[in-house]
Amino acid sequence: AEGGGGDSAAYSGGAMAAAPGFAESLERKLTGLSNTMESIQGLSHWIIDHKSRSAKIVERWLKSLKKSPCEQRLNLFYLANDVVQNCKRKDAIVFRDAFAEVLPDATSLVRDIAVRKPIERIFGIWEQREIFKKDFTVKLREILVNEKARAPENANVLAEFRPHSIIQQLAAFKTFEDESMTKETQAANLQVEFLSVEDFKLIKDQEGGMLFSNELEETSAKLEDFVNHLEKDIKRLPMIMDALEKAELFYESQFKDVKIVVNAYTNFGNRVVHLKRQLEELVAKLPGLSPIMSPPAGIHSPAGSDSPMAGPEGSPFSPP
Q1: 253 or 27, greater pLDDT
Q2: How many CB atoms lie within 10 A of CB 166?
Q3: pTM, two decimal places
Q4: What is the rounded distance in angstroms from the CA atom of residue 267 to the CA atom of residue 273?
Q5: In angstroms, rounded to a whole number, what is the distance separating the alpha carbons of residues 259 and 135?
Q6: Distances (CA, A) of 95 to 89, 112, 123
Q7: Phi, psi of 133, rounded to the nearest 5 degrees
Q8: Phi, psi of 308 (to 5 degrees)
Q9: Which residue, among 68, 41, 64, 81, has the nearest Cα to 241 in the 3D structure?
Q10: Which end of the chain is more exposed for a tag (fewer CB within 10 A), N or C?
Q11: Of the candidates 153, 155, 171, the residue with the CA atom closest to the CA atom of residue 163
């Protein structure tokens, strides 16, 4: 089969099948995939030649998708598109079933506006050429725009999300980013001059040569450490993005719940105000209340022993 990057031997089916470390080899190929037709078709041919490993290949494809940056995820979808379109005529239809198992999860990872349009075009091609059933591609489109098809997945996220987890992840990422800034500053401050061929000829003694060699090795080690650190940083980004998307989903749900409660209490408060207004209107319509009536003329208030407040003689309530 034709190989990516012009190296047909790299995608030789029989040789790679027998070689050890198949998973590691596949991982390298997926990581090194570019957006050129040669790279995508070359790896697609190699994958189809290994149809006996279809389940493992697709599983590794999804793992690579999850930890890749946005642009590389699009390349991986182009690869999947080439595989599912060409596998039938190469008697490897098993790849369509294998990809159908993971495409719903995979589609949720390519909702970024930068790649959404190309992904939609891929789904359109699948519909036109009947690569998958129409209801399946409709479901993928719904996932792509984050509609009801994501409800079961969202329910799991809401049930499993822990606020302290995202805080810890962000704190760890901040620490890692601070280290990156420090290493970048150190790399920028390196003062080694890379000499030309003519400059090397000016080194007259072994001491001068060793001094330059040591400086060059030290600089190279620091730069290599910085590059390795950045590679780790790049690999962490998709995981952080995934965690942030889950946090966004969780807090959006929480906000909706709070809005429901706020609306309920607002409506209750409005009903109380309305009821108060109605009661005030009723009170205003009631007849005026008469003042306390005085006793009829000629009736005197009780006094002395006739008073209900009079007590036995000698008691504190006895009249003087």
Answers
A1: 27
A2: 18
A3: 0.45
A4: 10
A5: 34
A6: 12, 26, 16
A7: -65, 150
A8: -65, -15
A9: 68
A10: C
A11: 171
Residue 7 has a pLDDT of 41
**Which of residues 183 and 269 earns the better pLDDT score?**
269
Query: Positive or negative, the Cα torsion across 113, 114, 115, 117?
Result: positive
Query: pLDDT tens across 20-42, in order?
Result: 588 889 999 999 999 999 999 99
- For residue 79 the two structure tokens come to 């690869």
Write down how long the chain is.
320
CA 161, 167, 168, 172 dihedral sign is positive
Closest CA to 233 of 184, 185, 173, 186: 173
Joined tokens for residue 257: 């719940």
Burial of 86 per CB tally in 10 Å (0-12, 13-18, 19+) = middle
Top pLDDT among 121 and 112 is at: 121
How deeply is 241 buried, as exposed, middle or buried, from its count of CB atoms within 10 A (0-12, 13-18, 19+)? middle
What distance in Å separates the CA atoms of residue 189 and residue 183, rounded to the nearest whole number?
10
Q: Are 74 and 35 in contact (CB under 8 A)?
A: yes
H helices of 34-162, in order, are: 37-49, 54-66, 70-86, 94-107, 113-128, 134-144, 151-160
Give, in order, the Cα–Cα distances in Å from 23 to each of 30, 38, 53, 67, 317. 10, 22, 10, 16, 108
Give me the residue label for tokens 């001059």: 193
Structure-token pair, residue 137: 């591609």
C-alpha distances out from residue 271 to 277, 279, 280, Å:
10, 12, 14
pLDDT in tens, 218-248: 888 888 888 888 888 777 777 787 788 788 8
Query: How far is CA 139 from its chain centroid?
Result: 20
Q: Are 76 and 31 in contact (CB under 8 A)?
A: no
